[in-house]
Design goal:
The radius of gyration is 24 Å and the shape is globular. By secondary structure, the protein is mostly helical. Among the domains are: 3-43 and 56-89 and 275-313, no CATH class; 424-579, no CATH class. The protein has helices at residues 3-15, 33-41, 48-51, 59-72, 79-89, 118-133, 140-144, 170-182, 186-203, 223-234, 237-257, 286-293, 301-313, 343-362, 366-387, 415-419, 427-437, 465-475, 481-505, 533-546, 561-575, and strands at residues 97-99, 135-138, 158-159, 259-264, 267-272, 340-341, 388-389, 394-395, 398-399, 404-405, 462-464, 511-513, 519-520. The model is unreliable at 1-20, 555-563 and 570-579 (pLDDT under 50). The chain is 48% helix and 7% strand. The chain contains 21 helices and 13 strands.
Length: 579
């Protein structure tokens, strides 16, 4: 994109509501000519590197020096001079954080003893050690000079995903917290929860991650569930009482800013979608967004950037899920995230509304408990009417433009099972038939993210830890031994993939390629990252739940489809034997 393209971005940011948003206060990390020149010069392999670099002096001085440099070169600064400017005025990324060992970390949490396989137990112990490696604390100078950093100051230390992700992220942190609670680290969880609550108090929502350039968007809303897990573990009702209003505030953000009405016949249903009404490229992926926009007519570029941000808000950045029905479903430029009513988002909100009703009941506030109970019931009815498909036995994203369900396979199609957001217990077994009909149980190394191979990271052949959890814990809610056995076998497959890759590479990854025996994943906008917060959390949860049965060895190798069928038949026969 040339300077004329940059001026179009600038024009938008000064004419629309873009400038009314908090990121308007950050003309270096979020928008403006300096950001444009640096990112389009591609001085770094990853656009995220520049926007994570702290300034060495006040932003006004940096901007003044940049203005002088830009004017001297007629706004086309040679790479060498630009590099020199950055070395003079910015510090290396990561300088604003320091390593932190959680005070409540302990050598041998109790859940390790539940793991029968000694190799898996030793591995779980190593994953427990990783919390120390992933612990971070914000340096005091970020509080003293917040204007010099893209990092948002957090009072309490936290666990990060790992790799390029030096800050904490919203939905990642839920699975991290589940792992931390198994590791008997509730104080670390409480601090992380407080950081999220502080963000809601300051900005009215939880941003995608703890950076100013993420302020325009959120991520899948799991804050209420985080609170539920912490309170269930600790019985810290005082903390809940102090913060229940903030939880309500966060749900209000989704209700007021991300709602959509769907009319079916005579009736209308209010559900939610991912929607970020701001243009301009994402600062952390600026050059990619700018170049993608160059493939479109000028009038379509702002809408593209808004849809990319909505895709990032979904957590599924990016996926065929948001591309369906475009001019070319494999082209990212056909993205239209906000034109879908997503199953998982509405399942998470349904779960949150039920939890809020439970919370208010426990705190003796009957009127608020009734309010959230009614919201829960309304959403339950809307999920059934708009997203549920009785014939297929699953829920599907609703395509608002075409007025129909997107019937492709995604693990998110079963999110209401995981969230407990269904009224008929029989739907769990219908969901198992859906998995069988979709041939998902034939994948030996994990549940694929989709059956489309687009080159995007939230598509085939990648498999992601949170999506395994959605399906496994969803199926495990069934009273049927057969369905529970499938949940266990899916857990066994995932544990084996993670364990085998760890055995080869001594690392955990954010995603896995399940097409060739289980390898670190690929695709998308950046190299696969090590760490990895939510992967570790899900593995620890599965080892805790099934630790007496899971195996590391080849004697119960990945079950081929015919073996799985035999295992299911055996479990079914056993269920008829007298107890």
């Amino acid at each position: 994109m040339g300077i004329s393209g940059f001026r179009n971005i600038l024009f938008f940011s000064h004419r629309g509501n873009f400038n009314q948003h908090p990121i308007a206060s950050y003309p270096i990390y979020c928008h403006g000519e300096l950001l444009h020149q640096v990112q389009m010069a591609k001085l770094y392999q990853d656009d995220k590197q520049f926007v994570d670099m702290p300034m060495s002096s006040a932003p006004e001085q940096v901007l003044q020096r940049f203005k002088e440099l830009a004017n001297a070169h007629n706004h086309s600064i040679p790479q060498q001079q630009l590099q020199g400017f950055l070395e003079e005025h910015f510090q290396a990324m990561g300088q604003e954080l320091q390593p932190w060992t959680p005070e409540d970390w302990k050598d041998s949490p109790r859940f390790l003893q539940k793991i029968s396989d000694l190799k898996l137990r030793a591995w779980a112990g190593q994953l427990h050690q990783l919390w120390k490696k992933l612990g971070k604390k914000v340096k005091p100078e970020v509080l003293r000079h917040p204007e010099r950093f893209s990092l948002i100051y957090s009072q309490h230390p936290f666990i990060v995903p790992g790799g390029r992700f030096l800050e904490f992220y919203y939905w990642d942190s839920y699975w991290v917290m589940e792992g931390l609670l198994l590791s008997e680290m509730p104080e670390t969880v409480k601090g992380m929860l407080q950081n999220f609550l502080d963000l809601v108090q300051t900005y009215g929502h939880v941003p995608n991650g703890a950076r100013v350039y993420y302020l325009q968007r959120s991520q899948p809303p799991l804050l209420t569930l985080m609170m539920d897990r912490y309170v269930t573990h600790t019985n810290d009702i005082a903390f809940l009482r102090d913060n229940i209003g903030t939880l309500a505030l966060e749900l209000d953000f989704w209700t007021e800013n991300r709602n959509i009405s769907v009319s079916l016949g005579e009736k209308s249903y209010v559900l939610n979608r991912y929607y970020v009404p701001y243009g301009g490229p994402r600062p952390e992926s600026y050059s990619k967004d700018a170049e993608l926009a160059d493939t479109l007519p000028e009038g379509d570029r702002e809408a593209l950037w808004a849809e990319l941000k909505a895709g990032a808000e979904s957590g599924w950045d990016f996926s065929s899920r948001w591309l369906v029905g475009g001019p070319n479903p494999n082209l990212l430029s056909s993205i239209r995230t906000s034109k879908f009513v997503p199953v998982d988002l509405n399942a998470f909100l349904c779960q949150a509304e039920e939890l809020m009703s439970k919370f208010y009941t426990s705190l003796g506030n009957d009127s608020q408990a009734t309010k959230y109970r009614n919201l829960w019931e309304q959403r339950l009815a809307a999920l059934k009417a708009v997203l549920w498909d009785e014939e297929k036995g699953a829920w599907f994203d609703y395509d608002l433009e075409n007025g129909k369900k997107n019937q492709e396979f995604y693990p998110s199609n079963l999110a209401p099972l995981w969230a407990g957001c269904f009224s008929d217990p029989g739907v769990v077994d219908k969901a198992l038939k859906y998995l069988e009909d979709s041939k998902i149980l034939t994948y030996q190394y994990g549940i694929p993210t989709s059956l489309w191979k687009t080159g995007q990271q939230w598509d085939f052949p990648n498999a992601w830890a949170p999506l395994q959890d959605l399906v496994i814990r969803g199926l495990a809610k069934s009273p049927s031994p057969r369905t529970q056995e499938v949940a266990f076998q899916l857990a066994q497959n995932w544990i084996r993939t993670n364990f085998d890759v760890y055995s080869q590479k001594s690392a955990m990854y954010e995603k896995y390629d399940i097409s060739n025996g289980g390898q670190p994943g690929g695709g998308g906008e950046y190299e696969v990252q090590e760490g990895f917060g939510w992967t570790n959390g899900v593995v620890l949860m599965l080892l805790d739940r099934y630790g007496d049965r899971l195996s590391s060895g080849t004697q119960t190798a990945f079950l081929e489809p015919h073996c799985l069928a035999a295992a299911l038949l055996l479990s079914l026969l056993l269920s008829f034997l007298p107890q």
